[in-house]
Amino acid sequence: MHYLHEKHLSKIWNPGTAFERDHMTRVAVPKGVKLVTEWNSQIVTSIFCHRAIAATLPALLAAWRSAFSEKEWMRMGLNKWAGCYNNRPKRGGKGPSTHAYGLAFDVFSTGNPFREAVTTFSPAVFDIAEQHGFFSGWRAWGHDAMHFQACVPHRTDRAAWTPTKMLVNHAWPHVAKAFLTVQP
Ligand SMILES: [Zn+2]
């Protein structure tokens, strides 16, 4: 096994208080990355997430910031943080959301809305995410461009999308190993 798939999440199917204690951590937003909450424009200084992405998530945020001018970064809405951990069911689906495991996050949800095939992000945004081990809803199933997750999705509706591209990424074995070895 070289990458983490959503099906592996069933190993820890019951997210909640014990899950948070055994799996979650809080990571600092990198210096120079000025994130604000999309819903009330509060500065985000740290993110509660799964330990498996404690290194890759801040690295991705820093990489996104350095890949674009500040103007472009803000124009695309990469500064608008829309949340990571949320112990909730999948919207319109079965079982917990990948957000319930702290393995997914959303960015600029109003510009990249749920179930809509529109995005404010350039292709480089998705390329950089994949290089850091995060799949996008946009590439995997063609909408929900706000959504990024650190595990291979169940849904891969887009013919052009292939999980094999993730196998060349060095972040993936690390994420899978970190996730699968942190058992309650
Ligand atoms: Zn999401």
Commentary on this structure:
The chain is an alpha+beta fold. The chain has one domain: 2-Layer Sandwich (Muramoyl-pentapeptide Carboxypeptidase, domain 2). The chain contains seven helices and seven strands. The strands form three sheets. It has a three-stranded antiparallel beta sheet. A two-stranded antiparallel sheet has the order 1-3. It has a two-stranded parallel ribbon with strand order 2-4. Helix 2 (56-67) runs antiparallel to helix 4 (123-131). The longest helix has 12 residues, at 56-67. Mean pLDDT is 84; it is low at 166-171. The structure holds zinc ion. Zinc ion is lined by residues 99, 104, 106, 147.
Distance between the termini: 20 Å
In what range is the share of β-strand residues? 5-15%
- Assembly status: single chain
Strand order of the largest sheet: 5-7-6
Morphology: globular
- Arithmetic mean pLDDT: 84
Rg (CA only): 15 Å
Q: Hetero groups bound?
A: zinc ion
Main sheet summary: 3 strands, antiparallel
Supply the number of structural domains. 1
Give the low-pLDDT segments. 166-171
Instruction: Output the structural class.
Output: alpha+beta
Shape-level CATH architecture = 2-Layer Sandwich
Order of helices and strands: HEEEHHEEHEHEHH
Brief description of this entry?
With 184 residues, the protein is α+β, with helices and mostly antiparallel strands. 29% of the residues lie in helices and 12% in strands. The protein has one domain (2-182): 2-Layer Sandwich (Muramoyl-pentapeptide Carboxypeptidase, domain 2), CATH 3.30.1380.
